[in-house]
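pasting for ref
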Amino acid sequence: MRQRLLTADMQLSAWLGGVKESGCLRLLAVILAHSGDSWFWLAGLGMLWWVGDDYWRFRAGVFLIGIVITAVLVMLMKLTVRRERPEGDWGGFYRRTDPHSFPSGHAARSIALAVMALSLGPPWLGLVLLAWAPLVSLARVALGVHYVSDVIIGGILGLLTGALSVYIVPIG
């Protein structure tokens, strides 16, 4: 049963990973895939915390806490499972610095950010991130750096860490 699930996962991932040639769709997938990078979010949230008013500073702080919690849990799972990334050429940086694909940190981070934004507001930000998060996950599969199961489990982990981050920070 386990082998059949893994085979189905690999086949579905290969089918979704059809964005091999250059063009608009591939460029969009690359932009979406990189938009979930942790350095991008850490830098942006750090700047928001530095220049924002109390409303935005609080949210930036919660988002930063959520990103750190998510990253720690993702790395623990990756080091435990040690699933190799799918074969492919794109994402050399990811393949060198993090050869493990399960779970997807980008999927976990993007879903966690959406959950936190939906919980804390403003409503427009929550809706934008809710639409953006699955696209990041799909782009990671389409570019061949993750399997479908990597992003599904990453998304579930993101739901949990996003909710945990909002729960542990007192809203004042």
